[in-house]
Amino acid sequence: MHNRMKVKINNLQGNVRLVLSGELKTDDCIKTGKEIDAGLASVGKICSLVVDASELNYISSSGLRILLGLAKRFKDFRIVDTAPDIYRILEVTGFTKIMHVERAMRQMSVEGCEEIGRGGVGVVYRIDDDTIIKVFREGASIDELNTEVTMAKEAFVLGMPTAISFDVVRVGSQLGLVYELLRAETLSKLLRREPHRMDELARKYAALFHQLHSIEVPKNSIIQSAKAQIENAVRHIGRYFNDASIDLLLQMVSCIPDTNRLLHCDLQSKNAMMQGDELMLIDMGEVGFGHPVIDLGNSYSSMVSLLGDYETIIGLPQELSSEFWMRMIGYYFEDEPADLVAHRLEQIKAVSAIRNFSWLALSDSFPDDVVRMCQDAFAERVLNKKDHLLEICATLSDWTL
After folding, report:
1. Range of 13's domain?
2. What distance lies between CA 391 and its chain's CA centroid?
3. Which of 69, 103, 137 is the last residue of a domain?
4. Do residues 160 and 191 both lie within one domain?
5. Are residues 212 and 170 both part of a single domain?
6. Cα separation, 112 vs 160, whole angstroms
7. pTM (2 d.p.)
């Protein structure tokens, strides 16, 4: 006696998940097809249909026809969590070429693993000497992970030194990306352990920025505008700040020149890992193109003017982090006259004030005390310096490349 089919339908505001459990054999298909049709009809308007195949153990040719019929009926259609045997059938029959099919993800645990990085979208752990995993926040979608992988590959091809994920996994109820980084450690950890190497590491850090900012992103690249991403982020945090505050931030953003240089957009010392003698980048979720002041401003926001717990987020005491960043920026502008460097630093600080608050758009689930901390700091860091910030931002047009 075979494991007969069970059908379960979950509806979340028109986004329907159809769970198929058991063996979809030929003699069950007429009954199962009618059960699926009746269940979907009872839902009403369907915006998207996801077939959960995690408990599907067998599928006949008649069962394949049911899936094909659903794919034709619903424009937004996916099959997810497909077991290896079922995926092979769908691949051999050509279904993976005509519809979106996702393999089942293996489960991993980070229990007892060293935390090496933490940000708005997730936490990075070391699994072993050769492997790290970035665990995304609760509620992150597979599309977000796929976007990060795609951006990382594109940036790698353009010349950004970055690790490429080789697996998408589940960690409990959350999603994760696994990377191979042979015996690498974060710049934060290395600097903390060997502060006497600050000068050497600051030079490498500056050289990494220079390497990225020398790369021009072609017009046909899938990499998005960092300036547009900032504008979207500022609008997104309108739930936390009044219209006048959002308009002020947008006015500051509008002053940033439009260029096409490759940017990491979150290049702080926990997102740079030393592998041998080379710095490699991780956490590629915000990669974009634009003016280098965005990269440097975001970095200043993290390394110098961070709102929050330096030790947890950056992995360094604030004094050490600030000194390291200031030494790096000195090397970044090493050949420039002192008065110009001072001017560029003021421009970087002004742009960093945007990032101090726009990062709240990275998640809709930050604790209330984190949101209040940012709201309380807004007057001191932006409103009370409004005229100065706008005056400095207006000079960004003189920063030509």
Report:
1. 6-103
2. 32
3. 103
4. no
5. no
6. 32
7. 0.79
Structure tokens at 283: 């956490």
Distance of alpha carbon 254 from alpha carbon 393, whole angstroms: 9
- Sign (positive or negative) of CA dihedral 384, 388, 389, 390: positive
Give yes or no: residues 61 and 126 share one domain. no
Name residue 128's amino acid: D
Range from 144-148, 335-339, 381-385 carrying the lowest mean pLDDT: 144-148
Contact indicator for 230, 294 with CB cutoff of 8 Å: yes
Closest C-alpha among 176, 122, 114 to residue 149: 176
List the structure tokens of 28: 């069950």
In the chain, pLDDT over 70 holds for what percent of residues? 99
In this structure, what CATH number is given to the domain that contains residue 75? Answer: 3.30.750.24
Tell me the backbone φ, ψ of residue 261, rounded to 5 degrees. Answer: -80, 150
Q: Are residues 94 and 139 in the same domain?
A: no
Where among 180, 210, 230 does a domain terminate? 180
User: How many angstroms separate the CA atoms of 188 and 117, rounded?
Assistant: 9
Alpha-helical (H) ranges within 225-282 are 226-236, 243-254
The 10s digit of each residue's pLDDT in 54-99 is 899 999 999 999 999 999 999 999 999 898 899 999 999 999 999 9
DSSP structural state of residue 222: S
DSSP secondary structure, 269-321, as one string: TTSEEEETTEEEE---TT-EEE-HHHHHHHHHHHHTS-SS-HHHHTSS-HHHH
* Residue 246: CATH number of its domain: 3.90.1200.10
**Tokens 């069962």 identify what position?**
63
Whether 305 and 226 map to the same domain: the answer is yes
> Within this chain, do residues 91 and 120 fall inside the same structural domain, yes or no?
no
Mean pLDDT to the nearest integer, 340-358: 97
pLDDT tens for 11-35 read 988 899 999 999 999 988 999 999 9
Residue that has been written with the tokens 């993290």 in this structure = 302
